Amino acid sequence: MIEAGIHPDDILVVDRSVTPQHGDIVIAQVNGEFTVKELALVPEVQLIPRNKAYPPITFTDDTELALFGVVTNVVRQMTRSKRA
Fold it and tell me: How buried is 66 (Cβ within 10 angstroms: 0-12 exposed, 13-18 middle, 19+ buried)?
């Protein structure tokens, strides 16, 4: 989600009371796996990665999709701890 301004180690604030709309960044569960993607509702429902290295997630009749909430804020630590 680099192109959406979300980087590794960022903390996402998610509001489950917000109804997801086209263009929102959402927390979704697809076939049991959690992901953070941009929600596209037109021309078809897709989850769009905001990183050109990954393709959009499209859905078939047997795909399980659950939307858990809309990302409303990103918390970023300005200095990263050193990793071993």
Answer: exposed
For the chain, domain boundaries: 2-75
Environment class of 37 (CB within 10 Å of its CB; exposed 0-12, middle 13-18, buried 19+): buried
The CATH number of domain 2-75 is 2.120.10.30: no
pTM of the model: 0.85
The SS3 of residue 49 is coil
Q: Return per-residue pLDDT of the chain as tens, 84 residues.
A: 888 989 988 999 999 999 999 999 999 999 999 999 999 999 999 999 999 999 999 998 999 999 999 999 999 988 766 665
Q: In whole angstroms, give the CA distance from residue 74 to residue 24.
A: 13
